[in-house]
Design goal:
Blueprint (H helix, E strand, L loop, with lengths): L1 H14 L12 H9 L3 H14 L4 H15 L1 H15 L5 H16 L4 H15 L3 H14 L4 H13 L3 H14 L4 H13 L3 H6 L9 H13 L3 H13 L3 H4 L2 H14 L4 H13 L3 H4 L9 H8 L3
Helix pairs in contact: 1-4, 2-3, 3-4, 4-5, 4-6, 5-6, 7-8, 8-9, 9-10, 10-11, 11-13, 13-14, 13-16, 14-16, 16-17
Length: 310
């Protein structure tokens, strides 16, 4: 029992270093005393009672989530925080909402078991060496032990993509994004995976209500608008990218291809479009030049085969 208690204390210190004990209401010291004496279930029950009495108290909700994580696992802890956020979203400040979101990610990335962490680290080492076939089995084993672990899911999606398992990577990205919808990097990758699989409406839904989107997301949105028949919107976005001072996507072959697609509809094979075509073919002469994160989410390679025949 002491060994289990020490393990829980160690995990607890990882979750809130330096904040194991703090200033609480009159009944809170009892919960902390119960914890320090390794009466973990009693401590959780006390924190839950305090939260019931003060249902808008964020500190109590955090304590309950941390104790649930230690005793019941990742899913109950995260679901509890999400329920608290939904119930109190009208009363919470922006900082408090961000604090809850941060805690959800923290719980999602914290390893519960040593075996799960060891397998993840082995997989990460293999992936860094680009030994993706050797990395994937360790990731699969790790995620079985640590379901819902965001670190594992993000790496697993990347390894599956590198191995050409696009459908598996797509599903894994969906799982990761469900846990962390605030990660721009994960959102960018999921949007591109949506496009690759022809899910243009789903991709657009992730982006259209956002005030600030990255150049990479703007390119994805332009492709979606074009495919969904909103070609004026698509053309506007592409022109914005072409005028951008950041060359990463302003001169990217996919951006040049989208500019050409728009112009081909209004002036097929004119002198100007032939000039654009030559520019695109030159920019994409090497396969690596049109890949994004090592793959071709817009299937530009297939389009180039047809364009070279014009």
């Amino acid at each position: 029992m002491r060994r289990i208690g020490n393990r829980l204390l160690f995990l607890f210190s990882l979750l809130i270093p330096g904040l194991v004990f703090g200033a609480w209401d009159a009944s809170a010291p009892l919960a902390e005393q119960q914890f320090s004496q390794h009466h973990f279930k009693d401590s959780l029950a006390t924190w839950k009672k305090l939260l019931e009495q003060s249902p808008k108290n964020l500190s109590y909700a955090m304590k309950v989530a941390e104790m649930e994580f230690l005793l019941q696992g990742r899913t109950p802890a995260i679901e509890g925080l999400r329920a608290f956020l939904k119930k109190n979203e009208k009363f919470l400040s922006v900082n408090q909402v961000q604090e809850i979101q941060k805690k959800i990610i923290e719980l999602s990335e914290t390893f519960i078991s040593e075996e799960g962490q060891v397998n993840y680290l082995q997989a990460l080492s293999k992936a860094n060496l680009k030994e993706f076939s050797s990395s994937l089995p360790a990731l699969k084993h790790s995620i079985q032990i640590e379901p819902g672990n965001l670190r594992i899911l993000v790496l697993k999606a990347e390894v599956e993509k590198e191995l050409g398992f696009s459908a598996d990577s797509y599903q894994t990205l969906k799982e990761a994004f469900k846990i962390d919808p605030f990660s721009q990097k994960t959102r960018e990758r999921l949007v591109e995976a949506h496009v690759f699989h022809g899910k243009f409406s789903e991709a657009k839904a992730l982006l259209e209500d956002r005030e600030n989107i990255s150049a990479r997301e703007k390119l994805a949105l332009a492709v979606c608008d074009f495919e969904l028949g909103e070609k004026e919107n698509s053309q506007f976005l592409i022109h914005e990218l072409l005028r951008s001072k950041k060359p990463e996507f302003s001169q990217h072959p996919v951006t040049l291809w989208m500019a050409l697609r728009s112009d081909l509809e209004t002036s097929p094979l004119s002198q100007e479009t032939r000039k654009e075509l030559r520019k695109l073919l030159q920019a994409s002469s090497l396969k690596e030049s049109y890949l994004i994160d090592g793959w071709d989410p817009y299937r530009l390679g297939t389009q180039l085969e047809s364009l070279r025949k014009l």
